[in-house]
From TrEMBL, chains A, B, C, D:
Pfam families, per the entry: GFO_IDH_MocA, GFO_IDH_MocA_C
GO molecular function list: inositol 2-dehydrogenase (NAD+) activity; nucleotide binding
Membrane-spanning parts: none
Domain Gfo/Idh/MocA-like oxidoreductase N-terminal positions: 6-121
HAMAP family attached to this UniProt entry: IolG (MF_01671)
GO annotation terms (biological process): inositol catabolic process
PANTHER family: INOSITOL 2-DEHYDROGENASE, PTHR43593
Protein name: Inositol 2-dehydrogenase
Record flagged with keyword NAD: yes
Lineage, highest ranks first: Bacteria, Bacillati, Actinomycetota, Actinomycetes, Kitasatosporales
Domain of life: Bacteria
Homology family: Belongs to the Gfo/Idh/MocA family.
Function: Involved in the oxidation of myo-inositol (MI) to 2-keto-myo-inositol (2KMI or 2-inosose).
Catalytic activity: myo-inositol + NAD(+) = scyllo-inosose + NADH + H(+)
Amino acid sequence: MGDLLGVAVLGAGHMGADHIRRLDQVVSGARVAAVADPDRARAEAAVAGLDHVTVHTDPVAALDAPGVAAVLIASPAPAHEEALLAAFARRLPVLCEKPMVPDSAGALRIMEAELGAGRRLAQIGFMRRYDAEYRRLKALLDGGRLGRPLMLHCTHRNVSSPADFTSAMLINSSVSHEIDAARWLLGQELTAVTVLRPGPSAGAPGGLLDPQFALFETERGALVDVEVFVNCGFGYQVRCEAVCEAGSARIGDEHTMVVTTRGGARQEVAQDYLVRFAAAYDREVQAWVDATRRGEVTGPGAWDGYAASAVAEAGVRALETGQRVAVDLAPRPALYAGR
Amino acid sequence: MGDLLGVAVLGAGHMGADHIRRLDQVVSGARVAAVADPDRARAEAAVAGLDHVTVHTDPVAALDAPGVAAVLIASPAPAHEEALLAAFARRLPVLCEKPMVPDSAGALRIMEAELGAGRRLAQIGFMRRYDAEYRRLKALLDGGRLGRPLMLHCTHRNVSSPADFTSAMLINSSVSHEIDAARWLLGQELTAVTVLRPGPSAGAPGGLLDPQFALFETERGALVDVEVFVNCGFGYQVRCEAVCEAGSARIGDEHTMVVTTRGGARQEVAQDYLVRFAAAYDREVQAWVDATRRGEVTGPGAWDGYAASAVAEAGVRALETGQRVAVDLAPRPALYAGR
Amino acid sequence: MGDLLGVAVLGAGHMGADHIRRLDQVVSGARVAAVADPDRARAEAAVAGLDHVTVHTDPVAALDAPGVAAVLIASPAPAHEEALLAAFARRLPVLCEKPMVPDSAGALRIMEAELGAGRRLAQIGFMRRYDAEYRRLKALLDGGRLGRPLMLHCTHRNVSSPADFTSAMLINSSVSHEIDAARWLLGQELTAVTVLRPGPSAGAPGGLLDPQFALFETERGALVDVEVFVNCGFGYQVRCEAVCEAGSARIGDEHTMVVTTRGGARQEVAQDYLVRFAAAYDREVQAWVDATRRGEVTGPGAWDGYAASAVAEAGVRALETGQRVAVDLAPRPALYAGR
Amino acid sequence: MGDLLGVAVLGAGHMGADHIRRLDQVVSGARVAAVADPDRARAEAAVAGLDHVTVHTDPVAALDAPGVAAVLIASPAPAHEEALLAAFARRLPVLCEKPMVPDSAGALRIMEAELGAGRRLAQIGFMRRYDAEYRRLKALLDGGRLGRPLMLHCTHRNVSSPADFTSAMLINSSVSHEIDAARWLLGQELTAVTVLRPGPSAGAPGGLLDPQFALFETERGALVDVEVFVNCGFGYQVRCEAVCEAGSARIGDEHTMVVTTRGGARQEVAQDYLVRFAAAYDREVQAWVDATRRGEVTGPGAWDGYAASAVAEAGVRALETGQRVAVDLAPRPALYAGR
């Protein structure tokens, strides 16, 4: 087993358990070496049947377990900062689920710590960058054939939201995916945000402002609009149309088997992000394992985690105030230069 | 009213009544001058509210009614021959619903009579030639950009068939549309036909061989296959894919509003040919009125009616014998030269 | 010819000539009785070959020409007010191309005059209400199956704009179509508007703010966003997605023959509104002729023309100021009650 | 490395090299333990950079190499029989690329040898059974919601064929995929075959009968038609429409990013089967590795390889004779009972 990358997985909930399954059964070149969860029984259940795995309730102890050469953080966001700092202290490469940390102040501390380590160690889990359709769109935009991008029209719909979802979380949890995707697709920072609030859907839990419509301005004058609707009831839909000077490109339309019955011609719509983006998660973790084994960090990093936080915070203020809010971004350290 | 083309409509059933409505309310430049139906009450009902129309039970009397300058035959097929001959005798231009007459022997008599009149007078109601999608496909094929057509894959489905529909009628009533469309699209005669019979659908009335799969060979080596399924239960679907040396083109996919609900993304499918081809019928009759007022015949003629009959007869023999049957076509008279 | 509705067409430019052709060749039950254009030669050319038409340079003279029973106004917008008032004075039914008049103050005068006439006489040329896809969407929304509409996402793209097109015209000429369509689809007035200005496309003439992104709020809390891009270079695209509480519906995607060649699978995109909405114009004029012959007015009226003006004016102020601008709408007279 | 399944890969050509990459970089739970190719340099190149791999020119020697616990046969078809028999003798599980062996007589010998081994050891590389769309269609048909399948309409197009491709290979190499897919989707054996030959495309190499149109009858009366066109020039297209008693289902339409430019709206078409079916190959090999580690054989087996051969042989005779040819199938041994 010496050749396989030993990974400590922190967090054995829904997402953590899925990553454990992925590392064990899907991804090549890695194995689960340790798992940590405050709920030991949950951690043990997640690795049942796997050999050579140690189980911990303390995440830091998991980092020090035998065979651990890298860390995958899938614990709740408030636990990320401690885990990231501990990993950096051990110079362990990390794949950290989004959001990197709960706020931009914490994100600045993470960047500082990584700067202290003198090299990039963290990849943040913006898995859309690994989705085949997003990559195709990115390649098309970068190729320049359509000219400069002028607008991105985005749609982000969930069947329903978790019980504790707040109006702010439509921005800082859901739209944060579009924030990163827009930054990445356009190669530009977002500079201001406005959030509009149509009358809430009857399907939204009482008090939840759902749907919302967010507008982002970018440093070179593009416009990004996002419909976010987390209790739409009908499906998990993530779409993006890039409108450029010489054409437009659209991804994310439902493309499955067409079934014609008396009711008409019908195409299934994915109901869950783990279905829609299953392959993207697989590719993300495989790419991280491959890069880590080569000693590299190739994916979105701490700067991207920080920028997403800062934009989302401005978005929440825009939602609360009804005003356009400018994004206040710290200078980009040289370690994070390049796109 | 002197400027309007006065039309005698023969037959006031489903199709006749629809044409009367069309001439009155949709088409420009024409008016209904006379109507004939053995059932006088039905004829009167079909023209209720229209002025200057005479009502007849004898179709020939309708041809001689005041103001009649052209004839639209929408009576049952067995009545077509007498009506066509009477119109030719009066040198009246005719639009005759398909089939021109019930068999190819009768069709030869029609051609002979029209040859005797010395000029083309009849247009046959192959309305697909007036459908926007078919015309686009025809223009593409004629333009030559895709090279020589090698195959046509056709689908012809009805929700359900009339009570008295026979296995032979799948060929000589339903597929006759594809027979004409293929001849027109390819600019070639069909030379042989084979009909395969999958096990009948549980939805087909007892004894009806439904669906069927017909294969036509053409004089220059193209292949035309047609699925015909007249009790499919789910919709009226007419599709055609032309496979050529340098590309393929497909028409007839359902293209309507996309509605996404919990069940998935859904597009309505037309349930009836009067819906699917409503605009084609309108264009057909308008084109016939326009040409007739100019003294021309521009649409499919008696030769096309004859060829469709001859091919359909071979098809019925192929269905009955399970063998490939060659089409025996009379020589094409000079009057019908050209496409 | 006594039975046909005699129409005076005012204006013989691009649109007027097209309407003359439509009344003569497409529409049933009407004829062109008179035409007026300051350029007599242009007026004569537009009716060449038609009988029983008088040609005028003075529009009012055309209204008084023999056989005129209705008026179609296709002259430039500044000429509409005089023509409408003259028609009202003669109690002639009118189909008036949009915009009804150049500003909302004039629109109020038109309503006042029609109120003085004591009955509705004017239909305004918002032809999208006659497009098959828009009607299907309207029927779906009215049917209530999708629940309350929350958002409309609209796209309005032209290949290129006329030479004299200004930044304000993106709102008051192009988006005015969406303003009417949104009012009609939702059955609600628009109450406020914000216009965002992405960096202009390199394809836009110098100084033209193109594209723009307009946001409309409605009286019952729905949100309508419109991308307008009049020099997109790639096609004439008009799309609308209605997002409702229980589902979404989308119209306007390009749906034509699919041609597959080495370059991929391709669908043609309409390049011109007269192509995309050809059938809608035909249906609009036919519906107006039919209603007029019955003594009714069934289409969008002076109130709709006024409301579109008032919203568009607020939109232009929003564009100029960068601010959200409330729409100030006069009370709706009883004559215009109902949707 | 003890936990990983050591695989001997026989054949280091295009397909073998791709499988080596897949086992090394994509698939979880396996490693390449040995490789054999008559061309030693090619074998060495295919495993460059991998550790613990032995390189052989003799395939049997590779089976006996240290660490080999399973075999993946990707050598030319004539070499398969010897390799399968040697694997069976060693009771090694095998994944064998299609065709299993070049003819049905050899296929019977393979089944006999596996029967001698007393257990199933071979999986045949019909990778379409692992394609997401095919699996969705299979699940839909098995679920019974659409009723009994009546017809399958299939399309199989390649951009161009290899230099040595013969007319018979359109059936026994290309259509063999549809033969297996139809047997699997319908759960029925194919009983007769007819092959029609439209005039060859100008794009086909001299003498090659391309395209062809094959018709298969099944034991319970369904009909399967296949257009095969291996020099279509425009793309790699694999489509299937299942027409059932209560509806139809279609897979394989091109579903990628829609790019709209002046030319129209365009979707890319895959040019190569390794692109179109990349994920299916990954899933196939992963499923084989997973089942093998559990001591099971779950995929298509020697019976399926034999049946495909027998049907393809009948197809080639049908092509050569122009006649309908019945398929002569040996009785199915109990070892291969079940679907």
